[in-house]
Specification:
heterodimer; A: 115 residues; mainly beta; 7-stranded mixed beta sheet; 4-stranded antiparallel beta sheet; 11 strands; 49% strand; B: 113 residues; 6-stranded mixed beta sheet
Amino acid sequence: NAGVMQNPRHLVRRRGQEARLRCSPMKGHSHVYWYRQLPEEGLKFMVYLQKENIIDESGMPKERFSAEFPKEGPSILRIQQVVRGDSAAYFCASSPGREKNTEAFFGQGTRLTVV
Amino acid sequence: AQSVTQPDIHITVSEGASLELRCNYSYGATPYLFWYVQSPGQGLQLLLKYFSGDTLVQGIKGFEAEFKRSQSSFNLRKPSVHWSDAAEYFCAVAQNQGGKLIFGQGTELSVKP
């Protein structure tokens, strides 16, 4: 059973470009969470999604950031018109669902560098 | 509001010495508590978790943690540290088992030979 897969592992974008980060949850998991880790900081929750639904986006910046988890395919975190301050590690986690007695499992992260 | 505090930003211990990393949480209901470890450039690996039951929890790599409701703490311990334990350690709290996590700032552990 493959773990949570994130790609790319490293992404370099110029200011003003778009960044697309992908997350494939573990098999059987229908809940996905995105977290951001800024340099020298802990992880901050961004968004919680189920298939085709955004459940909690209380941690998402109001502009330029969006997330989706379509019926088919991976979850996508999209950052439009990136700025230097978006440089961070972005982690995805998945879980089977709140009714299951288990924790969320994390991917290896995507390290975004904006130049 | 939920919050997690890890008072120690950086700790250095000698190899073979015992270790305790502190974690205090603020949460109104029964929390679900976690400790994760992150090696440089890597993702997070779960060390252990507390959902209910016995307040002393055993995890992987010889780590354990004790949930103390009266102190709102969930400190991580290891009796004898190995050089490979050098990493960053994060405490986290969640409202439910698989849900949204609130992380502490992390404690960076260095191990002296």
